[in-house]
Design goal:
The chain is mainly alpha-helical. About 80% of the residues lie in helices and about 0% in strands. The longest helix has about 40 residues, at about 25-60.
Length: about 190
């Protein structure tokens, strides 16, 4: 569906630039946008590699397991099935830790693994819905990707947004979990 929307937007832009005589301006904007996209992607690569390496290092030295034990009381309350399934608890804690570091792309594989363990056939359980909500509105202690983008765009202090990120991510994750819990009570799992 998105490919149809993007194609329609592109065609409308081309038609209107042609009708208004702004074809050269559109061509220039397309080239400038493509160059800016490549520049941004290359400048973010270093930060993403750094934080992915930190995540791998955390796993190898056992810090992820320690964080899993630290998060266990909270995980058992939000995801009761994690108490009996240690692999699920590990996936959930690794996912939450990666999200706390602002590495949504690194959190995705663990989130998918946890989701597969929680799913019942093709039906989403209440726990799975809470996982989706928690991943969407994740608590971020270090917004690594946002800081990388701000650095690439020339921000003098890319981490000066930390207090705002902490407050908004805690509020959004907290309200999301409360809403998911409430809706889970309305529509109970079978």
């Amino acid at each position: 569906m998105m490919s149809h929307i993007w194609t329609a937007m592109l065609l409308v832009s081309i038609v209107f630039s042609w009708l208004t005589g702004q074809g050269t301006a559109l061509a220039g904007a397309v080239m400038e946008g493509a160059q800016a996209g490549v520049t941004l992607a290359v400048s973010m690569a270093g930060s993403l590699c750094l934080w992915a390496g930190v995540g791998n290092l955390m796993t190898r030295i056992g810090l992820t397991d320690k964080l899993s034990r630290l998060l266990a009381p909270v995980l058992k309350r939000i995801f009761p099935s994690s108490a009996a399934d240690h692999a699920l608890a590990g996936d959930l804690s690794a996912n939450i830790c990666a999200n706390m570091l602002g590495l949504g792309n690194a959190a995705t594989p663990m989130g998918i693994s946890a989701a597969k363990r929680m799913a019942r056939g093709d039906t989403a359980t209440n726990e799975l819905c809470r996982l989706v909500v928690l991943n969407t509105a994740s608590i971020q202690l270090i917004p690594a990707n946002v800081a990388a983008i701000r650095t690439a765009l020339g921000a003098a202090a890319p981490f000066d947004i930390l207090p705002a990120v902490w407050i908004t991510s805690l509020c959004s994750a907290g309200l999301g979990i409360v809403a998911a819990w409430f809706l889970g009570r309305v529509w109970k799992d079978d």
